[in-house]
Amino acid sequence: MDFEHSARTKAYLEQIQAFLDAHILPSEEIYTKQIDSAPSRWTVPRVMEELKVMARAQGLWNLFLPASEYGPGLSNLEYAPLCELMGRSPIAPEVFNCSFPDTGNMEVLVRYGTAEQKAQWLTPLLDGTIRSAFAMTEPDVASSDATNIRSSIVREGDAYCVNGRKWWTSGIGDPRCKVIIFMGKSDPRNPDRHKQQSMILIPRDSRGISLVRMLNVFGYDDAPHGHGELLFEQVRVPAANLLLGEGRGFEIAQGRLGPGRIHHCMRQIGVAERALELMCRRARGRVAFDRPLSENDITQERIAQARIEIDRARLLVLHAAWMMDTSGNKAARQAIAAIKVAIPEMTLRVLDWAIQLFGAAGVSQAFPLAYLSATARTMRILDGPDEVHRRQIAQLELRKYQ
User: Fold this and answer.
1) Cβ-based neighbours of 83, under 8 Å, separated by 6 or more
2) Tell me, what's the pLDDT at 259?
3) What is the pLDDT, as a whole number, of residue 366?
4) pTM to 2 decimals?
5) Which residues are CB-contacts of 279 (< 8 A; sequence separation ≥ 6)?
6) 328-372 pLDDT, tens per residue?
7) What is residue 6's predicted lDDT score, i.e. its pLDDT?
8) Which residues in the chain come in under a pLDDT of 50?
9) Are the CB atoms for 347 and 379 separated by under 8 Å?
10) What letter does residue 141 receive in the DSSP assignment?
């Protein structure tokens, strides 16, 4: 396997790095101030739309779609370092129209959507004029096992009636959110538990959808994106809104989660790199007990270990991306599960060392470390908790010895 960057990747890396340095990193504070000063926190900051126009004009747009007519057609291996760079800033992925859950939802529409569904929802998502949400997790069941889902999708003539309670529906707070991909049971009596579920496209403004509450992540509301708890009561949508067909929901979910998981891991390496950079700059510039912190043995040890762990984690991600490109997502599922466990754990360790070096400043809003730590910790649960991925890794490993 060859992890040398392609010519296209090298060119994009230069462009994205320059854009980050010149526009995105200086805009992070502006972004936060515009949210804080708006009449409602669920308002899109003006600076975000300005950055998106600039990025699209430079061709830095929809880079995430592999082998697709809708983007530049980068492979997962080519996209990995670009996604890592985007991960250095919490606002960068959206600037390039490469943020979740839109990326996963767009991939679902590209793979499984009808021509009509693509025209109605995929085109504006690709244009970045609307955003979307994904409603799968439920508060009343262990949703790490997707077969537990209780929400219902029932055919009634030329429509489906949807009922259920969902939470951690990311993106629902954004006023630009116009469509929800909803997973529920359409055939609960099917003896095959993995063919009981379906997915359907629900317009955000459909009658019967109510927002119960917005949910915080370690005290952060992630406005204007947000994560919401929703109640669906007798929501009727056209039968044409069903994705792929009845009983295909689990199949779609598996197809969606592979790329989504590796994208999260790619971005988390970028988070770890930024934490290490902040750590090094702080160590060089901070003096305690008459010498720079960089001269302390424990500081040097942690910086060295961070460098080792980040580089090791990156190789795991590149290997998973290579397997997805060469063997397919299903064949790469053990490698994907492995990085989903390893990368958030690594990122949390590096962030913790950085926070410790910064002292009280590290847990404040003066630096991004506390927020990045909260998101990295959430990654150990998002798209399946560590325990589920470890279980899958072990089962796949044991199969080799049957």
Assistant:
1) 63, 64, 93, 98, 263, 266, 267, 270
2) 81
3) 94
4) 0.94
5) 302, 303, 306, 350, 353, 354, 357
6) 988 999 999 999 999 999 999 999 999 999 999 999 999 999 999
7) 93
8) none
9) yes
10) S
Within 8 A by CB and 6+ apart from 147, the residues are: 193, 194, 196, 197, 250
Q: Is the dihedral of CA 253, 153, 170, 44 positive or negative?
A: positive
The span from the CA of 235 to the CA of 302, in Å, is 53
Predicted local confidence at residue 128, as pLDDT: 96
- Give, in degrees to the nearest 5, the angle at Cα 385 between 384 and 386: 125
Residue identified by tokens 């009449």 is: 39
Considering only CA atoms, which of 264, 253, 262 is closest in space to residue 111?
253
For the chain, give the number of residues.
402
Centre a 10 Å sphere on the Cβ of residue 154 and count the other Cβ atoms it contains: 14
Q: What is the pLDDT of residue 157?
A: 96
Closest to 202 (Cα-Cα) out of 183, 185, 227, 217: 183
The pairing of beta strand 287-288 with beta strand 291-292 = antiparallel
The CA distance from 352 to 190, in Å, is 47
Tokens of 275: 């934490």
The angle, 0 to 180 degrees and rounded to 10, between the axes of the packed helices 297-327 and 76-86 is: 150
Query: What is the residue whose two structure tokens read 């009922």?
Result: 163
| Nearest in space to 358 (alpha carbons), one of 298, 366, 272 | 366
Say what the pLDDT of residue 256 is. Answer: 76
Integer CA distances (angstroms), 162 to 193, 207, 252, in order: 19, 11, 18
Positive/negative CA dihedral, 257, 263, 265, 271: negative
**pLDDT of the residue at 152:** 98
CA gap 53, 96 in Å, rounded: 9
| Residues 196 and 190 sit within 8 Å (Cβ to Cβ) | yes
What integer pLDDT is reported at residue 175 of this predicted model? 96
Q: Under a CB-based contact definition with an 8 Å cutoff, are residues 55 and 188 in contact?
A: no
